[in-house]
Amino acid sequence: xxxxxxxGVTKVFGDxxxxxxxxxxxxxxxxPDGDFLVLLGxxxxxxxTTLRMIGGLEDPTEGEIRxxxxxxxxxxxxxxxxxxxxxxFALYPHMTVRENLGFGLRREDNDMTDGxxxxxxxxxxxxxxxxxxxxxxxxxLSGGQQxxxxxxxxxxxxxRLFLFDEPLANLDAQLRKTMRTEIDELQxxxxxTSAYVTHNQEEAMTIADTIAILNDGKLQQLGTPDQVFNEPxxxxxxxxxxSPDMNLYSGRVTDSGDDYAIxxxxxxxxxxxxxxxxxxDTSDVLVGFRPQDLYQRAARLTExxxxxxxxxxxxxxxxxxxxxxxxxxxxxTAKIGGFHDLAAGDSLTFTIAPEHxxxxxxxxxxxxxxxxxxxxxxxxxxxGVEV
Amino acid sequence: MSYVDNAQxxxxxxxxxxxxxxxxxxPILPVMSLVGVFILYPIAQAIYSSxxxxxxxxxxxxxxxxxxxxxxIWTSETIHQVxxxxxxxxxxxxxxxxVLGFLMGWLLYEKLPFTSVASAIVLIPWVLxxxxxxxxWQFMFGGSQGIINELLxxxxxxxxxxxxxxxxxxxxWPPIVGMIWRLAPLFALLTLTSLQGxxxxxxxxxxxxxxxxxxxxxxxxxxxxxxxLAIGFLLMLIYNIRNFSMVWVMTKGGPGxxxxxxxxxxxxxxxxxxxxxxxxxxSMLLFVVLLVFSYYYIQVYDKVQGEF
Lengths: 387, 308
Description:
The complex is a heterodimer.
Chain A: E1 4-13, E2 21-31, E3 36-40, H1 47-55, E4 62-67, E5 70-71, E6 82-85, H2 97-107, H3 114-127, H4 143-155, E7 161-165, H5 173-190, E8 194-198, H6 201-207, E9 210-215, E10 218-223, H7 225-230, H8 235-240, E11 247-256, E12 259-264, E13 268-272, E14 284-289, E15 295-296, E16 307-317, E17 320-327, E18 330-337, E19 347-351, E20 358-361, E21 367-369, H9 374-379
Parallel strand pairs in A: 3-8, 3-9, 6-7, 7-8
Antiparallel strand pairs in A: 1-2, 1-4, 4-5, 9-10, 11-12, 11-14, 12-13, 14-20, 15-19, 16-17, 16-19, 17-18, 20-21
Helix pairs in contact in A: 2-3, 2-4, 4-5
Chain B: H1 3-16, H2 20-23, H3 29-49, E1 52-55, E2 58-64, H4 68-75, H5 77-109, H6 115-122, H7 124-127, H8 130-140, H9 147-155, H10 173-196, H11 200-208, H12 213-242, H13 245-250, H14 262-271, H15 276-307
Antiparallel strand pairs in B: 1-2
């Protein structure tokens, strides 16, 4: 059980004075005991480097990493009591599953006898349902089985921290979902503080207690999955999180008494001031609609915007469909139920509840207004909109 | 029907008359006939000759002597001396080349400055024509002008120049040194490539598992390299036992047989003493030893194929 702190950590590869590459830039993250932190971001954002610094495989150029308040910068990886699951599993190919699992226990300064180690190996193997594979070599296992062995090798030592470096990236889509759930379950069972790296936002959203979103080595936002989805700190987070991508339009804001009047190329609408926490002091904004929040004008009554569009492609996804359409000012994507009768070429009008509209400062790209969740939206005047 | 179709049809017709058991061997017939003429026939001829007292200058007067040539191998002290030389040559040469080559390979792997230049330079002994390499060593070991004598004098190991190549006590060692120089780079390269073949993540996983640098070497590096090292070891044995040029250029196997190994002795028996029968019997001995080494080589090689 460990309280992990990453405090002002910077990592520069190469010579910092000359042509060094800044992989991580003044990063601070506080991970409470037992928390499941996901480091999320595009390739090269510094998330894996951060993980490796926590594990001791890389040294920070600046800043401190602390476990329960103790600085561990100078403690070698092998003495940090941290377990790591690698993307390619990194199982020892010349050892059996049993030897792979027991390897870490045999390296520790503990008084475990061979019998005790063997018993612990069997326990963990049963927990992961790989007990029949104990005498096999990694090459004889399927990807999912290898993944379980890699997990087993991590949990067997009951380390202070779990680190996961894109552990699901090498598995097929189906297996990825099952293993995702299993890792989540496993972590809550053993309650060990974990840091998990992925570039897959869906994976991050489902598995994390806390998400740290990184870009270009800088922390963009630290928050719960709900927070990063509904109140993304900036445009980057808003675009990175959520699928399909958020629809974005540039617009102008004017103050009209009780409301803010928003105007884009396609439409104009009002957002009650009560829905906006801070005063808007800029006129140029970016207006964001989540595809999930859009629906057909005819379906409900709303004071929201009208966006006329022509359907290009309909992608059915079970009970829902993703509709790609073209409006006057560009593409618009919506994800809604009851679109079975739509076909390419049809015209329709989208709308959205004002609570669900995102607004960003066009210049700083910082969030002005996020997506209000149902309970908060109830407090605000709804202008007759059904939410 | 066109001419081509006709030819095709008559070919198919003809081939069908060949029994299936024979037909499958037809495609490899060209290669097999070359193997037969250049490998199998000479072997058979050597086995046959080993039962004769046969002079190279008058082969027609060969006289069947049964196992007499083999009996001579069994009893001749000269030949025993040669066999002992061969054992020392192979054992010392191989082990030294392996230890030295392993260290060189490791240094190259440890990305020191100038590694890429160094790995090219390291290969020079191996790519240099054998006789050239051997001549360089002969020159360096020379009794009156050799740099090695000078070096040993400077270091205070010896008081004055020694004629090493002409001494019955020492003459085996200069060629062994030359051979180590020639083979170590090959082993270094083998070490380097097998080290490079080990996934970096395995070391990281081991570090996270708490392994010390020594434990990483003991439990990751060595086991991951074991088949490559075994293959390298057998290659060293085979190269060493077969070697002829290093000894021949430096000492011609002399003085006496003090620096002769089996291949040198075979050559001398056949082309200096013209005793083809005894030379053939000696060849059979070398043949059997090489067969054993090759058997193990293939065994290990198959294991490697199965493992990865």
